[in-house]
Amino acid sequence: MNKTLARVFFYVGISVFAALLVLPLLTLFSVSFRADADVYNPSFFPPHPTIEPYQIALEKYPLLRFLLNSFVISSLVTAGVLLISSCTGYALARISSRVTNTVFALIVGLLLVPGEVTFLPLYIMVNRLGWVDSYFALTLPFIASPIGIFLLRQFFKSLPQELFDAARLDGAGHFRMLWHIAIPLAMPALGALAALTFLGTWNMYLWPLVVTNAESLRTAQIALRFISSDEAVRYNIVGAAAVIILLPTLIAFLIAQRAFVRGIAMGSLKG
Amino acid sequence: MERSLRTNTTNRQNLRIRKDWLEMMVLLSPGLLLLFVFVVLPTVEAFALSFQREGLLGRNRVFVGLENYIEIFKSKENLQSAWQSLYFAIIVAPLEIVLAFAAALLIARPFPGVAVYRTLFFLTTAVPTGVAAIAWSWFLNPQTGWANWLLERFGLPAKTWLQDSSTALPTLAVITAWAGVGFASILLTAGLQQIPEDLYEAARIDGANGWQQFCSITIPLISPTLFLVTLLVFLRSLTAFGQIHLLTQGGPADSSMVWIYRIYQDAFFNFRQTYAAAQSVLLFLFLLLLALLQFRLVGRKVHYE
Questions:
Q1: How far is A168 from chain B (nearest CA, A)?
Q2: Among A44, A162, B75, B117, which one has the highest count of C-beta atoms within 10 angstroms of its own C-beta?
């Protein structure tokens, strides 16, 4: 009896906590389904639920274009990071020479340089190259990721040497060992790195803000800023736009929660 | 006969070494080239710029030595921004950690329905900064936001939150902490799950109750992770930008003009890029100091394992 009561308390407590945590998001959903007349009605649920704000938001703003921009940029960066981190990480882990040892030490040093500090000179450089308002500026600077290289180097280093010795005897070079042995074994690590990179790129704010002016290149995050200052009064439309922009990451997270969780745990604690 | 065999093997070895070297260069060079151009070069340039100043019309930068730095240390606004960043991080870190640690303690061990609660507690990782900011600005709306509605239920006066220079920065800090709970609870849950279950079993056999187990097993074993995550959250909140740009633009009355936001303002609106670069360098050095601390702690943790 005492145990049942304790269990009830536990579930009530944890549910209240969880509800409070998601409350701000619920208010966003709530306002996004309201007609203009109901926006300032303080009820919990929309009194007359309608999808009109979504229709208006989609008609008025090229939201799908913004999402597509974010998607293309995040995919390109993720693909690039996986490729470069695999190659560089493999070389640093499995080819031992004075060069790789020095390079590894340098990359560990680069882990300490936060992007928020280099954004200004990077912007000056990108500007000089004429890359403002281009996919180049939004992707190329992030493809070589010190954290990605570091994580995969650590992973490749942990693989047993015998696997590679055996492949050597069969006459395989490093390219084949990377492609046929290291990469297949690294699939979980690569998945986690992909989730981490995709999410990080999708959420970029400062960089896309300074290197894009054209609406056609605007990412979803930056677009929200413009929409919210455009629609200061019609909060239902801002809310609908925010929900549309939230959906892709929300769905991806619900589907691939494990990869995200592993990626975040791996990328933060070991880095 | 024997001799030719030996030269043959050394030849083959030489060939292999050369091939290894070639393959190494092919694998390394694209990554290294990109890192050099997009990370090393900008870092060096940030330092170089910080010792220069724009001439008239923003052209022809000239070397001015430490002048930018001297101006920063003499400027009231810059010192205020530095303080605001610290103040912001000092609110964000403990709040986020307390919320995330409570969440992690609840969901680290399996129970029926744990998957649902894990998803809910980790959910804010999937919420982009901009969306979080929009959700909160509605939640805190002075006229109809639920936050003021709740305050009034408890007989407290309504607030204008983000529109008031005395509450804007702490409010932004709460939003930032909320947005980071998913991230921090993922890390802390992972940390709690690494504590071996047999320790708890042994303690139970010895008759330790839940509280005693928490104090003598959980806390000592999680504290390195806890400290590390706190530091990480602190570092991240020192460079929080999106929510400030979306919600207050540094205002009202410069009350949320944190360090990174002032850099952005000086570089892109006041057209003082070199002055902004000097501020970036100082921020970099400060973050570096904290990151080195984090590195040492990670190193020690790995050593103990």
A1: 11
A2: B117
